[in-house]
Specification:
The chain is mainly α. The protein contains four helices and two strands, in the order H-E-H-H-E-H. The longest helix is centred in the C-terminal third of the chain and has 19 residues. Bound molecules: calcium ion. Calcium ion binds next to strand 2. One of its GO terms (cellular component) is perinuclear region of cytoplasm.
Length: 91
């Protein structure tokens, strides 16, 4: 679990390239590259942009670590709901 948390942090830092926020381009790239398996429409630039707008609490057009973490929370929640769904396998 520690390594998973480190990955979340490192992924943000690497994508932000030393800045405090992800710009639109970096966010597009991150979502497409890292979240394609767990989210829909990650190949759609407009869908990802819409997602970014939804996360952008301070409306600065960029994604801060906190806003990024909100997304991670959504994804974790979606995975959790999927896993506890009626067709979850018993492996
Ligand atoms: Ca923001």
């Amino acid at each position: 679990m520690e390594s998973a948390i480190k990955t979340i942090v490192t992924t943000f830092l690497t994508s932000a390239r030393g800045k405090e926020n992800l710009d639109g381009k970096a966010f597009q790239k991150l979502v497409k590259k890292q979240l394609g398996g767990v989210m829909e429409d990650t190949d759609s630039a407009s869908a990802v942009k819409e997602m970014q707008r939804g996360l952008d609490e301070n409306s600065d057009g960029k994604v801060s670590f906190q806003e990024y973490f909100t997304l991670i929370g959504y994804v974790a929640n979606a995975i959790s709901e999927r896993s506890s769904g009626s067709n979850a396998d018993a492996s």
